[in-house]
Each structure stands twice: as C-alpha cells, then as structure tokens.
Input
Amino acid sequence: MTVPKLSDWILEGLKGWASGGVTSDSFYPHSFINLFDTPVTALCECFTCLSASAQTRFRKSTARALHRCLPSMPDLNGISLNDQLIVIYSLLSLAEDVVALEALSAVVTLASGALDKWQPDTIRHEIYGKCLATVGHLALAAGESYPTPKRYERELSAAIYRMVSSVFFRVQHAPFCLASLISVTPANLADHLDLLGRFINELHESTPDQQSLAVHTAYRIAKHARYYLKQHFHRLSFRTERSRDTWLIDALIHPDGPFELVRSSDALDSPTLVSRDPPDQAIVLQHKDWTGYDQPPLSESQDSGKTTGPPWEQSNLFRRPERGATKSEHRTLA
Amino acid sequence: MAKRSSTRKNITVILQNLSRSEGGKILLLNLNCCLEKNMLVAKRVMTALESVKRSISASMSAANLLGHLKAVLQRRSFGLHLQHNRDDDFLAFASTGYIVTVMLYDDYGRFYADPSHSTYGHAFAHKTPGTKSGSFLSTARTNEVFWAAPVPTFPDPTVVTSNAEAARDILGLVHYGARKELIALHFVPSPARCYRPTVIEAISNSRFRQTSPLYPAEIRWGYTVDMAKLEAGTGPKDDITGVPEFVFEQVLLKECTVDGFYYLDRTLVDRGTNELDNKFVKHLLQENGLTDISDVIKSIERKLFVI
Output
C-alpha cells in the first residue's frame, strides 16, 4: 500500500472507530483489528510484524494522517470535537509507539499555532501535554535505541525548545524536557541546562520530594552526557545554593546519585567524581567553585576541630533549609 | 426451497470452520446454550450468519474468522447485539460499591491518563501496585462496549487495586497474556445502560460462559470464568465460576462517579494456551450434556433450521 493510501486507511479507520456511527469502517476488512481492545493497539501490534521498508511507509503514513488532522485541513470535519480529539490522541500515540519522527512538525504545530481552535483552556493544556509527551518520548526513544539521523536530532531539539517557549509550559515539565533533550543531543548539555536548569532548581527548592527526580536526572546526564559533563563543567553555575545548577551538583554526588566526590590532598582544587556504577570511571573537575565544597561549616569546625561525614553533609552549599524555614534562615544557610 | 437449502449449506460451512479452532468451539458451545435458553432469536442468527458467509473465504485463519464474526454479528442492524437490557437490575448489581473494568496500561496512557502524568517529572513515574490516580483526560471514555464487575463481589477486593494476575484471572480476561501491565478503573457509570452479556458480545473471548452451572436460572447478569480455578481444576465438574458481570454501552468518564485508576502491575503467566482452551471446551461440553463438537453443530442446526 502506498503512503497516501495507508494514511487514508489509518485516518478513516480511526475516525470510524472514534465516532462509532460511521457507515463505512475501513478497518472492517482487516478482521484481526476487531480482536483488540482498541485499533491503536492492533496497529502497533501489526507494525511490529512489518518489514523494515513497510515500517518506514507506516511511519510516514502516520505522520501524514496527523498532518491531515491540523485545523487547517478539512479531514476531520463532520465528526464532533470530542471525536476529533480522540482521533488526534490516537495518532499521537501511534506516532509515539512507532517512533514516527516524520510527524514532529505536525505535533509541534498542533501544540502551538493550532491550539486556538479548542476551548476551554483545560483542553488546550491537555493537547499541549499530549504533544509534549509525544515529542519527549520520541526523543527518549531516539536516544535509547533508534538510530536517529542527524537531521531528526536537530529537529527534536528544536521542537522541544519551541515547546518550552509555549505559554502552556509549566515548571513541572522541565525535568522531562531536560531528560528528552539530553537523550537526543547530549553534546548540548550546557545549552539545555541554560534553558531548563533554573526551572528545575525552582522545582527542587519549592518541592522537597523532587530530590529523587533530580537524582534521576543526574543519572540520565551521567549516562548520556558523561563526556560532555566534564567538558562543560566550567559553564555550570553552582556558586551559591540558589545558583541555577546547584541542584545538579547536589544530585550528582547525593548518596543515591551516580557519583562519589573524591579529593586527594595534592589536588584540592580539582576533585574527582568517581562513578558508582560502573565503578572507577572518574571525571576530574577543575572549577574554582569546588574549592569550598568540602570545607566544614565554621561552627562545626570550631566545635570539633575535625570534619565528619560526607562532603554534601559538611558543605554549607549542600545544606538545604528545613521545610518551613523563613527566607532569612534560608539566606543564612546559603 | 433452493434458497433455503443454500442458506443451510452456507451456515453449516461457517459452523464447521469454527469447529476447527478451540476458540471457535467455545463460541459454538456458547451459541448453542444461548439458543437453548432463547436468549437469541434463531432467525436473526441465521440472517447474520448468512451475511457473514458472503464475505469470508475458505482460507481465512481462525483469528480472522472470529474477528470477522465479531465485526458482523455486533452490527446493531441484525438485532443480536446488546439485546438484554438490565438497567433495572443495575442497582442490585452495584449497590454496595464501585464497579471495575480492566484495561491495558498502554491504552490507559493513550486514552485516559492525564498527560501531566507522563510529562511532569520524568515519565519514569514509580509504578507501585496499588498506586491510584484520580485525574483523567476530558475526552476520556470507555470502549464502545465494556465489561465490568462489582468490586464487593470479589473474594478479596484488593486484587482489583493491586494484583494484575489475580484480577485478570477472576475476570476471565484471557486475551491479556503474560507480562501485560494492567490498570483497573473503579467507577459507577451514570446513567447506567447495562446488559446481560451473551455470546454475541463475547465473540473472541475464549473464556466466556453463557451460564454458570451454579446459577443456571440467573437472567440478570452473567458470571465470569475464573481462569486460575480452571487451570488448577482436575476435571470438567470443578467449580470455575468467578464474579458477576455486565456489559455496558460507552460512557464519558466525566459523567460518571469515578473512584480512580489503580495500577495493578504486570500479569505473570499466559492463561490462553491451547491446553487450557481444550480444558475449557471439555467443561462446556459437560455442562451442555454433549460429548463431541459435532453434536454441538447438529444441536445448533436443529435450533436454527427447525423453525
């Protein structure tokens, strides 16, 4: 089947399924589809059985079908708005499952310029969320296993950057966006942190249970951008507790994080991050801000005369205010 | 006369095609039971099967034939699908709590889950069995026809909040094989449009039983087949009855009283093996008082053609 015919089949079939009462069901002759709970599940199952060239056609067809769902196209006219959304969500899900990178531009258009069609704002938030999830998961899939052409790497990054600039972007989306960006373009780690680090820091400070989220992010960075982390370390901002990337340093050497901080006596200004898993992979850090990291708080060093415990417990920089601490207390700790 | 003879021949071909697979045998046994209890109008069944014959080929696989039958026989125009309305019995069915329907985790993500669940944080949400989510998409709606059971009727109601394997087994969801992530939706559909299930709604589910020998006179709702009991049982006389079940027409979730979606974890084993299919066929044959699938075909033909 050619790409236009296949996209017709997918779109018409999904329309028929979503709206129920359509007289001609294009999925009907393919009886196996009726055995699944939803046609999307059936299509995904079907996709896994296709040859490589047929899979490529299927991806392109999914993208084409999604393009035809943009408000500027007439293909969804005639079914209710609710059913239109069901078709769009089905296609987004299909694009995500079959890693249809060709659908990127349609997804981004849906999430930005095309949102005016829907009311109220809660629906727009939903559509934006669905689109962001699709773009993000495409990026994660591309980074994990899919051999991604360079062109798509750039497009995926650009798509996420564009979605971050949307009015519907929320600070809670930031870690997901960062994880997606790191998966697809780890070399641009510093730029990604420039874009999203402050949001994650904000989230980290306002919600104590975000600690584990930051550690997850640190693991992802250590996995996908270990080399670039070392290269870009001088561009990280972690001079004070409220600095943009302090959360990242905190998470990297947290007891549950991917690295341990090791400092030999003859290289005080260049401590080493040693990987916990796999062990013995080291990153030597040269950054003037590290000088004060393992200095104990003044009061403690006066009291005991020696340091105890790991650096993140000793350092003022890693000491977070207790929940409910006043702003002045927070500043004092910083 | 010639037309009648050709109709009879066509229908016999379909029945014999069905008898070649275990899934088809189970369908035939339930169809026989359904006709026996006058839950389907024989003339309508004939018309629908005649229509199926026109569009099937001899080389069609068992799965395709079942899918085809499902698509055709469930058309409202044949007057077979969703014929036993039991709205009046709904309160008795669900008076003491929520009802539960189970879906694949993937389908939950596609059609129900609030997108913030996958985009807030990392999309690496902690999947702990029993985790509950109360939010859902504004467009969220059930399948066109969905199956549900009342939560309080489960011997241990916690299985439908945190145990995929046990929930899948008790509900007889044989199409969910091994290592499937499942989600349970607990809710009360309003307004309830519920029906006593028949073989027509259950085509393709090879663990459906039209009547339970424990409750042969129950016409308000059906009973699931407990797949764990079926596997553990030693013979066709064992009790394999699960919990009561209804089928419902599609509802929008925002119009329902929703308790929430529960993450049930993954199933462990596949209960849809040929061996178990065969065991279930023996159960149904014994319950129908028949010994062989050819007797079932003859019995169906008698009911269809005598009129």
